[in-house]
Predict the structure.
Amino acid sequence: MTNKVKTQTKTIDFMGLRRSATIISGVLILIAILSLAFKGLNLGVDFTGGSVIEMGYPSNANVDEIRKTLEKAGYSASVQAFGSDKDILIRLAPDKTQANQNNLSKAVVDTLKKHTPGVEMRRVEFVGPQIGDELRDQGGIAMLLALAGILIYVTLRFEFRFSVGSVIALLHDVVITLGFFSLTGIEFDLTILAAILAIIGYSLNDTIVVFDRVRENFIKIRKLSTEDSINTSINQTLSRTIVTSLTTLLVLVALYLFGGEVINGFALAMIVGVIIGTYSSIYVASGSLLMMGVTREVLLPPVPDETEAFDQENAP
Amino acid sequence: MNRYPLWKYVFIITVTVIGLLYALPNLFPSDPSLQITMEDKYKFTGKEREQIKTALSEAKISAKKIETVSDNKLMVRFNNTGDQFASVDSIKANLGKHYVTALTLAPTTPGWLKGINALPMYLGLDLRGGVHFLMEVDMKTAIDKSLERYSSELGSFLREKELRYLGVIRHKNNLTIKFKTEALRVSALKALDREYNTLLTFKEVPNEKGVALTVTLTEVNINNTKRFALQQNITTLRNRVNELGVSEPIIQQQGLERIVVELPGVQDPAAAKKLLGATATLEFRMVDENNDPYVAQSSGRVPVGSKLFFERNGNPILLKRKVMLTGDYITGAAAMFDQDQRPSVSITLDGKGANIFARETGKNVQKLMGVVFIEHKTDITKLPDGTISKKTKKTQEVINVARIQEQLSKRFQITGLDSPQESHNLALLLRAGALAAPVYIVEERTIGPSLGADNIQAGKYSVMIGFLLVLVFMAVHYRVFGLVANLALTLNLVLIVAILSMLQATLTLPGIAGIVLTVGMAVDANVLIYERIKEELRNGLTPQLAIQSGYEKAFSTIADANITTLIAAIVLYGMGTGPIKGFAITLAIGIVSSMFTAIMGTRAVINLIYGNRRIKKLHI
């Protein structure tokens, strides 16, 4: 399969590679699903409920010492460095016996202030258990709603199989990104949920651009097979795909490096999502078009005239 | 060819100028400041400026400016947050009582910009520091209270209509009214139905259980009660926040049962929480002097029409079931000392309350009256099976029992409080009004001021660096066309900031991320167009035709891609809470403004450069 297209200076046979791509995607998705099933996500306080306290120390903080101080005072808390050496993050699990967690976090802050004068409270977050549960449900619903909206729009603008293709690509990206967070154990919080939803938007953007070209080529270039049409389309949009991904990644890397701890996770999720999304709009979305047997007829007016039917028969 | 009509240029220039004007206020940095106001009913003495100056020189801090905002509001501006914090205690000490100081960020927008209503974006708590509470209203208690109120109201109504009944009994979810005969029940049912037809449902109890009616609240009534409880609580919380003296607080309904409270600049969430969540109120009831409370306590049999309470020292006391007056009618309360130097609270009632109280106390001169102090505390626990249990504990104490010496009316005093601190707190709570139902905090976020400042810094840096990287890349990759795209990108950023400022939307850290992301993605439209132009050139089109065809052919792709992203942004906005909403808004605004700048904006400039002349080669 080395069909060269005249209008293009160089052509990469993406669709010829789709079998290897399917295997790679399949393996990645399998790993992601297994990890999600057995390891799960390291859900942040936004989802689980509980308290998070960030303290700023005047000089380098000694995590072990802080842990001991808290243990001695009778708190079961996880302590870790956060960003710089001077900042630490303390996590308190949702309390089952104590009435209101709020007073607990205040007590912890007071304990630490007594132990090290000059330490400063930077952030305290308390989330009640019911909020966490609601958020999890809402996040799921939002994801489904977004997918449904997209399905409808793409069906209206293109055809049903195109919308299935784009949704498969989206699910592919979301599952693999979630798998990435599950495997690395990076905390999954509200901002990362926002990032996942932004990835849906971005990946879709990429897929639509390719599909748009596929539609155009289906209608314009009659002599090509479906596979060649799709290949041509991907090649024609390739430089755009690369340039846009590159500029977006430039910005995301800037966010990751300079945006501070809170934005860190968001940027990382987006970086993973953009890379996967670029790959999926080439292989997964277009590949699934082929697999579902999309042909140029589906995008033509419902009653094709005689000459077109004739052309189709003579197509190589 | 490739020329734009004049009106398009005029339009683009107008949008640009307006965008620049409204984005401009954000360039003026805000001053860390202290806002000084007075508690209600107090006025500035005129000596405040001098007192503040003394306080500052004592603390060896120089303020940037002391500003009179209004008759009752002063703003002390500082050069940095360090000075701001260091001066708080000293200023408080020098001013003395009745002043409320609040940390705030005061904008430095020049007057001519304020004149056209151009204001800087409102910074979210994560950027300025402060406390965020999400409170849930305990609707069960609200409905309980309403049922309680009906139980005394129905009795009065029947007595008034001279319809004899045996008693109103309060159950968990309903009331029953007992009657002696069937005939009495029939006539009572008729009268009650007429009076309470939309509010209550009356059902006849099967006769074998006694001649009675069960009373339940109608669906409409329950919904109204909930809505009222929420509204009443928002009003009360607003009053209490005003007592705290916070500048620019946000108190908003979220959903059907929750209230968001955001207090910028507040650094002591514990104190704020204590005041906001407190549900202390008072009730006045007559003492049942005919029965022995000790007997009732030991036998467990409380006489009909009475209820067993305890005094602070633990002694039992029987009070009448009927509430003479609730705390709802209190309009004023002040902490003071009575003639024996005991802490007390002087109370002022509104007109209606004064009438009720005058009537009730007038009937009961020389009898004993008890003052009940009621406090609600809610425990939330998650049970092992994952369900959430909420228990509202109501503690009631009789703080004062006194013989009514004469008819009481609008003003009176209550004593029996432990300490001046307690009388102060009670007065404050009574003044700010009672909560219709207890609230409990389901989410709390406190951002320290240093973290807020760090976040702004980090946000600014990452936007600038990301933006510059994209500009450099575009200029190198597309040369002249890249520079044009950069112009559009800059205008895009200006427009996003301008629109956010105009809407007075809250800028949060995720919002900044949304802006940065838009910057990255906004070039997409230009990339699509330029790649298309390149392609058309390769296909052998002349430069002029290639430009035209590139813009035309890329348009539908750009529209499709952006509309789908817009769908995602709208869904995000719909489901999101605070920070996610902020992200969605910036994303959506970014998409729309990037369509304008990347398509119309760049075309205008390209046409200006290349339009209507012969070009041999395009630098793209």
In short: Chain B has four domains: 6-25+448-610, 31-106, 139-221, 278-446.
